[in-house]
Design a protein that fits this description.
It is a single chain. By secondary structure, the protein is of the alpha+beta class. It has three domains: 228 residues, PAS domain (Beta-Lactamase, 2-Layer Sandwich), CATH 3.30.450.20; 102 residues, Methane Monooxygenase Hydroxylase, Chain G, domain 1 (Up-down Bundle); 152 residues, Histidine kinase-like ATPase, C-terminal domain (Heat Shock Protein 90, 2-Layer Sandwich). It is 49% helix and 21% strand. The protein has twelve helices and 17 strands. The strands form four sheets. A five-stranded antiparallel β-sheet has the order 2-1-5-4-3, sandwiched between helices. A five-stranded antiparallel β-sheet has the order 7-6-10-9-8. A hairpin with a 2-residue loop joins strand 14 and strand 15. Helix 1 runs antiparallel to helix 7 and helix 10 runs antiparallel to helix 12. The N terminus is likely disordered.
């Protein structure tokens, strides 16, 4: 029973350690995943900042280049002169397809494409924006009428003494602009950079799957990006048919939006590779560690079991030896006692009678010790028996009174009648008599011995209390061990027999003692339950 309880404690401890370890591993993995998310987000936001800076610098460079051309659409140069200057600029900047000057009235005054001179500028809204905002503006409609190639228009307003004099504009080849986006996205696996206008229409993209003029709608986080602050989200792409990680921000004072996207599996490819290799290694390591711990505990259990088996074998051998010796000695002891009693009945002087009486008492002591040895050697099997606890304790009370007279001990009896308990009456009588005998011996100068019982649900508590010498604290744990005694003339068998009898009927013994004040033994027994009466008890 002790070994089973010890093994259960070890098993619970091992299970607890395993659960704590697995929770720690789960927390570690969760922390790593959180760290991975933060690192990935920071990495993509940096890539977004880099792309935004590249695009803004590119467009601002175009705007600054146009601003260096000090033309006045209201006082136009000779067509040959203007065309020559514009073509010279085009030659140095191949990404510019066309250059043109537009008057405040919306007429094209000069253009590298001579067929446009004098024509009305098609995007009147763009002209009005340049006038009202007083800064470089970008076309929101990426496809112009009459153009063979897709393009992007940049317009720089011209002012003189605060008066609006018109605009100078350039048409940027969309293919050149896409090359800039592809150069930015080249360093990441399957990364796509897309520039859209405020209506969610594609201006340019590094991917051939996303064409200029495509209306993205809710497919991309356009509305989130319009707020001006960089952000991130994760969603399924209806274009690429995969789960993608998005980061976004506004461009050029919210005129355009830049959206960066990448497949989730590519985003976490490094971390997934680490998990694919690290988690199996971690699980193998944990399994090996748990196996080693289990083997150590198993080995320790086997050693303890062997020690307990050795102690049990030794105790069994001692018990058999005790029984054999007791049987061998008992017969001559019985004969000696008989002859002594015969001598005591013959005419003898008082001194001889006294000596014979002492000899008979000592023989009785030897007989009692032999009886204890025999009880200690009996098998520990318990039977379903019932007995009246009142009768048992009343008999113990009468015997204790007889022993207590010579010691000046007053015995108090307080036990309710008709209390049936599980156990053999003779064995329980011996157990309680041993406790009372020890209590009387602990009060050589007199005292008070109390025998009481109280029922508590399906159990009965019997208390044997004395106000004798008490038991030192260091000895309390050893009470009930075979051959352990604190008395000079004791054998250490009586209490061992008592503990064995009580445990035999699944009872329990508790001891409370204060040196110099007394000791209280509490014996808990089970109330008898009739198996055929559906759990009814007496």
């Amino acid at each position: 029973m002790i070994l089973a309880a010890w093994i259960n404690k070890r098993t619970i401890l091992l299970g607890t350690l395993t659960v704590v370890f697995l929770l720690s591993v789960g927390y570690l993995i969760s922390t790593l995943v959180g760290s991975a998310n933060r690192i990935v987000a920071e990495h993509h936001l940096k890539a977004l900042d880099y792309g935004s800076d590249r695009i803004e610098n590119y467009m601002k460079a175009m705007g600054d280049l146009l601003a260096t051309m000090k033309y006045d659409p209201q006082r136009p140069l000779a067509p040959e002169k203007a065309t020559l200057d514009m073509n010279r600029l085009l030659h140095g900047h191949p990404e510019i397809e066309d250059l043109w000057l537009v008057s405040p009235a919306g007429r094209i005054a000069h253009a590298t494409d001579l067929s446009l001179i004098g024509a009305a500028f098609a995007d009147r809204a763009l002209l009005d924006r340049a006038r009202s905002e007083g800064r470089m503006v970008l076309s929101q409609c990426p496809v112009a009428e009459g153009r063979h190639n897709q393009h992007i228009d940049i317009i720089v307003p011209l002012f003189e003494d605060g008066a609006f004099r018109g605009v100078i504009g350039a048409t940027i080849d969309q293919g050149r602009f896409r090359a800039v986006l592809r150069d930015i996205a080249l360093h990441e696996n399957n990364m796509v950079l897309t520039v859209v206008n405020r209506e969610g229409v594609v201006v340019a993209s590094s991917s051939d799957e996303i064409t200029q003029g495509l209306q993205l709608g809710n497919a991309y986080p356009v509305n989130e990006a319009l707020g001006g602050n960089p952000g991130q989200t994760r969603a399924r792409s209806p274009i690429f048919k995969d789960q993608r990680f998005y980061v976004y921000s506004s461009l050029l004072d919210d005129q355009w939006l830049l959206i960066l996207s990448q497949p989730v599996e590519d985003v976490y490819s490094t971390w997934l590779a680490m998990l694919r290799t690290g988690v199996p290694l971690l699980l193998v390591s944990v399994s090996l560690l748990l196996w080693l711990v289990y083997q150590l505990i198993k080995l320790d259990n086997m050693r303890r079991l062997e020690a307990l088996e050795y102690q049990a074998e030794k105790a069994h051998a001692v018990a058999e030896l005790a029984a054999s010796v007791a049987h061998e000695i008992r017969n001559p002891i019985t004969a000696i006692r008989g002859f002594m009693q015969l001598l005591s009945h013959r005419n003898a002087d008082a001194k001889t009678q006294e000596y014979v009486q002492i000899m008979v008492e000592e023989v009785d002591n030897v007989e009692a010790t032999l009886s204890e040895f025999l009880n200690l050697a009996k098998p520990h099997t318990a039977q379903q028996e019932k007995c009246d606890l009142y009768d048992v304790l009343n008999s113990v009370y009468l015997l204790a009174q007889g022993r207590a007279i010579n010691s000046g001990v007053h015995v108090i009896f307080n036990v309710p009648a008709q209390t049936l308990v599980r156990g053999d009456g003779m064995q329980l009588k011996q157990a309680f008599l041993n406790l009372c005998a020890n209590a009387i011996q602990a009060m050589p100068r007199g005292g008070r011995l109390s025998i009481s019982a109280v029922r508590n649900d399906d159990k009965v508590e019997v208390k044997i209390t004395d106000n004798g010498e008490g038991i030192p604290a260091q000895h309390l744990k050893r009470l009930g061990e075979r051959f352990f005694t604190t008395k000079a003339t004791g054998t250490g068998i009586g209490l061992a027999v008592t503990y064995r009898i009580v445990r035999k009927y699944r009872g329990r013994i508790q001891v409370a003692s204060v040196p110099g004040e007394g000791t209280e033994f509490t014996v808990t027994l089970h109330v008898w339950t009739d198996p055929g009466a559906g759990g009814a008890s007496a």
